């Protein structure tokens, strides 16, 4: 962080005091400076470096950085002090007196700023720390309004927003102080140590080494190596590795150690981050806003603890084209990151703003830092922790996150309560991490992780009735269909989970209400008649538990069959807007898929309302169909049994000399073309004995019953009759299948398949053309004619 702030300070000071047209930019993590006035006709890089060093040693006018609202330095100042010699570097009030006593022209703004502080103290009648503690913000407002030194006002604006009484975390918790460290005190001490303007105040024992000071400046500006450091002088949060303490060196511990020029230039850089009072969207009260400084987001990647969520994140923009200081200041002071219609308030919000290009143009990347308490020096001190680099790139789909913002804001407040169970904090952290990673890297896999994280949070709420009622948390529902395509990675796990998450009964007739709920009602207690936007009393329909995926899917299938029969549904409540390809089902039956991933995706994808289109993505309703390179063979047992678990009748269509099978469709009613009705077809009644047999591992017996049911329904299942006319249905019992595979077989019967796949299933287990099929095909042809 210190290197970045130094770069800002260098560009601002050169532009304000030497060349208004000077330009700076970032390239390969190095800050570059161009100035026709400063560098003149110099042709070599060495000459340009010497010119820059000379400017800071001989011409640089320090900004009057003062913090009269913190500590008691100003109350002990002798404002009539005469020049004197110091036997060591002056501190606190003596450092102020040293500035006042110098006759150097370049310190005139500083002296004017200090006198302005004195005038405000007198006007507010503040002469003790106790009085300052009671009138601190009134004093800051008075100082800013009556100050006649514009450069002091710039510092005040970078440190505090007086109208809303908020300090900038970038300059410590006290607006220029951090614990017992006063930035203004450090600033003045470092100036006294390195500038020749104070040579007359030095005792011979503290004479300034011009060569060492020059070498230190070259190190700070140009990264040239030197040993110039001052002990017991802290760089505070700007360089947390130099503050000393345990493990700071090869021994047990050491004192703080810093280059004075680093501290000087870094504090000059903070002036660029001036705050302002802004209005949060939908809230009347003003809040302090400092550019690119927001509440910390705790993610899995950054290593922050949950208790550090109260810290601040600072996002430092790196611009790649040469820019003048006034352009950079406009970016830092006026530029705001917007997350949708509202300003960014957290680190995740800024990541979303970057991914949606909701930040100012010309920024190539951001350096992300967290300013946290307690990591170095105790709970009273802040530490700047680097959280990495974030490159600016647009991520398709980030705009969809606005749909969850209202729910996520409520969940964030509830999970952040100190009395909230820890699992909700973990769920929130997982959501923030998923959003952050997607904004940083993009792609369907990372967007899918967001859906999984939201589903995990929903699952926690489903099992916490008292917590959700106390916090007024409703189920998350109604996400648009655009989420489906954005998260589609083409994997079999995704296809199966999407198909299952969309299971919902079709009404017996168009425009009627379904008689039972969607699959989601079997996972958690939601009021499906209100489109799952409210909780319901837990009933027997909720059968999902901590068991394995296959066992839960089998439980859901059995429950839906029972509920459908009791509710008088004319068709099985197993329809879905999506269908899983047979190669994915074969992989599931073979145990080649990640069951945990499927379960996590089901919980997330069920939050999507497949009936709701995203306004900007009206044409989306297709998932990618990526075939497996080496698909598993589909077991004939599955094909036979699945024909008894279809949500619509079978309809044969003649294709040349053969018949093709498909699911019945809704067609216009000839008697009333404005209405639709379902085609007539081959209705296969379910057999309630099959699921218990499968769950008991008796696959052969279940298949024999299924074959009999298909034959009664009008199909001709294999292996067919013996020459004597006796059916060979017992042949299905000859193949052995372990109980685990039988459980998966029962689970797979819940997964909807496409109309095209139905014909493949029939071809696998049926032979020839049954009389019923022929009659239906002829009837259909007659109606067509």
How is this structure best described in words?
There is one protein chain. About 4% of the residues have low confidence. The longest helix is centred in the middle third of the chain and has 20 residues. Among the domains are: 48 residues, no CATH class; 200 residues, no CATH class; 149 residues, no CATH class. The radius of gyration is 37 Å and the shape is elongated. It has 785 residues and is α+β, with helices and mostly antiparallel strands. The chain contains 27 helices and 23 strands. Helix content is 41%, strand content 12%. A four-stranded antiparallel beta sheet has the order 13-14-18-19, with helices on one face. Strands 2-1-15 form a three-stranded antiparallel beta sheet. A two-stranded antiparallel ribbon has the order 3-4.
